[in-house]
Amino acid sequence: MKRPAINRVVIVGGGTAGWMTAAALSKVLGTHHHDIILVESEQIGTVGVGEATIPMIQLYNNVLGLDEDEFVRETNATFKLGIEFVDWRKPGHSYFHPFGNFGVDMDGIGFTHYWMRWKQSGGGVSYPAFNAETEAARQKRFMRTSGESGPKTMPSINYAFQFDASLYAAFLRRYSEKRGAKRIEGKIVDVTQDPESGDIQSVTLESGQAIEGDLFIDCSGFRGLLIEQVYKAGYDDWSHWLPVNRACAVPCDSAGDWLPYTRSTAREAGWQWRIPLQHRIGNGYVYCDQYISEDEAAVKLMSRLDAPAQAEPRTLRFLTGRRKKTWVNNCLAFGLSSGFLEPLESTSIHLIQVAISKLLAMFPKDGINPRLVTRYNDEMAYEYDNVKDFLIAHYKVTEREDTPFWQYVKHMDIPDSLQERLDIFKARGEVMARHLELFKETSWYAVLVGQGLEPEGYHPVADAISEDELRLRLTKIRNGVQQRVNGMPEHREFVRQNCASPAAAFGVKGSEK
Known about the structure:
- This protein is of the alpha+beta class.
- The chain has helices at residues 15-28, 57-64, 68-74, 111-120, 132-138, 165-178, 294-303, 348-361, 370-396, 404-411, 416-428, 441-451, 467-486, 491-498, and strands at 8-12, 35-40, 50-52, 78-80, 82-86, 94-98, 160-164, 182-185, 188-193, 200-205, 210-212, 215-218, 235-237, 246-252, 262-267, 270-276, 281-287, 314-317, 321-323, 327-328, 331-333, 339-340.
- The N and C termini lie far apart (63 Å).
């Protein structure tokens, strides 16, 4: 049976996922030949807490044609150079996972191989000193470098954003509606399917209004109103590898200078995030309820804030994993309805972005092509699987055994795909990351070495140059990094001059902890 052409797209649910989808579709597809309708209910809240992102969000913003300064102002955002991990390897130890590269690749291999050779021969400067983002974060500095003219003589600065998720959704709603997307208020109480194909034909609201569509995108959150409640897509439960299943979140007042990075601090039963925005700090304790109660987690979080809380803490419940299929019939699941891999490396928004880009690349015109559906599901599974292994490595590779939670994750069995990476890394300081993987060699190196896995060897090509040439190259790179960072303003001052929000907390003085 031939399915109908795709002209009317119905997005079920708002929040970050829904409005990111509406904004992208209204911009790329337009609303002349496609109706783009978003259905959301004010009765159903969204999981809107402070969000941290990764640099790929700039690709999304560029597709939309956003003015970055306006975007930062409207969402009370700050800039992000990476993530600081505190107490993950062991209490009292910290390391930084930067967005940029260490040094520059040379002779077809990564810079870290040359640095490992240099270290083994007695070199004294640690590898983070060869990364501009790490050094800038340490000094609380920031600037954009993408608009610089002339040849590149110093490292570029790679960055993302830290923003208020509810303001981001509102910002994208205004953007979408300006381009013709339509919002309908209402709670969905029924779904009508075609009796032959099983495709969704319409959703019905409490008011009795039926909203018909050709393609439905489920952004309803963890419950998966369409993808699970209608299609029973199934769920791959990864909680045996990623056991955290709760997040207690609360905002607090600003506390001094704005750090241009997110901080993740390991705690007794999980970890705590700290996301500095212009008007406040977002905080959350991500934990496993087998090792700490919800009440105790809330008390712990409130006692560890840098400044007075602005609200009562609220608890979010989740199960790490992904849907077995995220495209079934004429329904796709984006965001939390497609799966959740916990916020440790700020990948949630990126996975929404990937889903949107793949839909646009495979967008059906004259009906749904089953081969494209299979291809889409395979590619999204690949995206989730690779992020999953990277996250598991943070827990598995540790020296901590001081609480039952850390004893469990340190000694748990891990996927064969991750074990293979760890074995290769131990032998030669690389994981053989594939081109399409989100986290490349630099990220794996920063995290695995930061967590305590020291490579025993390095790539043999690094031995091809002389000691003098090696020293000369590293000195030149180090000087370039220092020169770049020395020329950067303070992060807070950069925001004040370029993209400050009216709500920015500039009256607070002092330094952050």
